[in-house]
Amino acid sequence: MAEEFVPPSLVNHGSGGGLHTNSFLMPNNTVNGNANGNAGRRKKNNYSQGKRRMNSRTSMAQREEVIRRTVYVSDIDQQVTEEQLAALFINCGQVVDCRVCGDPNSVLRFAFIEFTDEEGARAALSLAGTMLGYYPVRVLPSKTAIAPVNPTFLPRSEDEREMCARTIYCTNIDKKVSQADVKLFFESICGQVYRLRLLGDYHHSTRIAFVEFVLAESAIAALNCSGVVLGSLPIRVSPSKTPVRPRAPRPPMH
């Protein structure tokens, strides 16, 4: 079971009336099998609520299917390009996307490779230990999917590409979690956060965030947080292919 991180903003008024102790959620005593003593009362879900829940389930199922078609490759020589890496796996199946991540100045990097089907991903696991450049690569099943990218958000300079190496994309964030909570969560586990952008509002069931760290090593460590419960939901963490650009200053009011 994934470890649960309870944000400070939810400590005194967390959902379900739970008692938070040492950053873990402790449920209150139940009465007649119902939390908080509610005698099985439930609000009726109208059609729109049911439709939203169905869309959410469909989206989650699609994401899980993409994850099963994706592998995680590590110990990649810094001289190896995305094209060369994809070519290594060409006999396993058709590659949909190949994303090399990590500090470009580091000797070794890592990547996510998505195939058109699960058979391709399973076949790719057999290439673990294959020499590519000066190092044997490691190949494991991926815990996250490669998020699609709007081309207008891609890095425009070498500096922005370096920013991407220090940035992660986090989804499925509990809407009750604040930006300060997200920052505290990642800094307590991975390292200092340089810039953070939390997106979404209370009209959406969950929110997303782009987190830029001071060090690329912190962004790599953050990938291991995928599946950890933040607030009341398990977050999903993947490398970001877009930098967190500073917001343009607002024009002064006259």
Name the helix and strand elements from N-terminus to C-terminus, one letter apiece: EEEEEHEHEEHEEEHEHEEHEEE
Q: Tally the helices: what do you get?
A: 6
CATH superfamily of the domain at 148-239: RRM (RNA recognition motif) domain
Given as residue ranges, the uncertain stretches (5+ residues, pLDDT < 50) are 14-44
Region (Disordered): 21-61
InterPro entries: CID8-like_RRM1 (IPR034823), CID8-like_RRM2 (IPR034825), Nucleotide-bd_a/b_plait_sf (IPR012677), RBD_domain_sf (IPR035979), RRM_dom (IPR000504)
Protein name: RRM domain-containing protein
Biased composition (Basic residues): 40-55
Give the gist of this structure.
The chain is an alpha+beta fold. Helix content is 24%, strand content 29%.
Keywords:
globular; Alpha-Beta Plaits; 24% helix; four-stranded antiparallel beta sheet; alpha+beta; 254 residues; 6 helices
Structure description:
This protein has helices at 47-68, 82-88, 118-124, 158-165, 179-189, 216-222, and strands at residues 4-5, 19-21, 24-26, 30-31, 34-35, 70-77, 95-101, 108-115, 131-132, 135-136, 138-141, 167-174, 193-199, 206-213, 229-230, 233-234, 236-239. It is an alpha+beta fold and 254 residues long. Among the domains are: 69-141, RRM (RNA recognition motif) domain (Alpha-Beta Plaits), CATH 3.30.70; 148-239, RRM (RNA recognition motif) domain (Alpha-Beta Plaits, 2-Layer Sandwich). It has a four-stranded antiparallel beta sheet. The protein has a four-stranded antiparallel beta sheet with strand order 13-14-12-17. A hairpin with a 2-residue loop joins β4 and β5 (34-35). The longest helix is centred in the first third of the chain and has 22 residues, at 47-68. The chain is globular. Residues 14-44 have low confidence and may be disordered. Residues 40-55 have a biased composition (Basic residues). One of its GO terms (cellular component) is nucleus. This is RRM domain-containing protein. Keywords: Nucleus, Repeat, RNA-binding.
